[in-house]
Amino acid sequence: MASKSVPRRCHWAKSDLMIAYHDAEWGVPLHDDRGLFEFLILEGHQAGLSWEIILRKREAYRAAFDGFDAGRVAKYDARKIRALLQNAGLVRNKLKMRAAVENARAFLEVQREFGSFDKFLWQFVDGKPLVNRRRAGGPIPATSPESDTLSVALKKREFRFVGSTICYAMMQAVGMVNDHAVECFRYATLAKKSSRSGSK
């Protein structure tokens, strides 16, 4: 009996967890505010750690952060933050935890001003995914001109843990940028959804 061929993926998708995330989420355009808030928080908490560690803690974060309801997170007080810092399922970093609450408040302000965080965020790529042409095994930059601009804009609105590197990782995750290797089976599928071209 012939074995089923294994699709070619980006080199970083190795473990079962990372493969599932790569195949179903990474680079898929996301326009749901709750989902965008989730990635904003998770990317900030990932700083200095591997993304796989964050994915393993994802369900614990969803439970601890009220399903990433920004309205609820924005009301967290010092007592709630102390409780979160005792949760072994989370990244127990005081600065990151406080930033998550402050970011929720800033997130709500953006929603009030723009109608949705989605509308605000996607303007930095003119509303369409930026499709790059990365070769398998080749370097992927940690930032871009767009992530630099986004980072500055978020900081002006008092968001924290939103440096350009974190912003670029979020842009990749939520599909604002298609950084799948051109040899990856996901590249062509996602590229068809965008007419924009990025760097090689």
Please describe the topology of this protein.
Blueprint (H helix, E strand, L loop, with lengths): L15 H9 L8 H14 L4 H14 L5 H4 L4 H8 L8 H21 L2 H6 L7 E2 L13 H12 L7 H10 L3 E2 L6 H7 L9
Parallel strand pairs: 1-2
Helix pairs in contact: 2-3, 2-6, 2-9, 8-9
Q: What would you say this structure looks like, in words?
A:
The chain is mainly α and 200 residues long. The protein has one domain (16-191): Hypothetical protein, domain 2 (Endonuclease III, domain 1). It has helices at residues 16-24, 33-46, 51-64, 70-73, 78-85, 94-114, 117-122, 145-156, 164-173, 185-191; strands spanning 130-131, 177-178. A two-stranded parallel ribbon has the order 1-2. The termini are far apart.
Cα(first) to Cα(last) distance is: 40 Å
Residue runs with pLDDT of under 50 for 5 or more positions: none
Q: CATH architecture, please?
A: Orthogonal Bundle
Question: What is the approximate shape?
Answer: globular
- Assembly context of the chains: single chain
Task: Give the domain tally.
Answer: 1
Strand content: under 5%
Radius of gyration over C-alpha positions, nearest whole angstrom = 17 Å
Task: Give me the number of helical elements.
Answer: 10
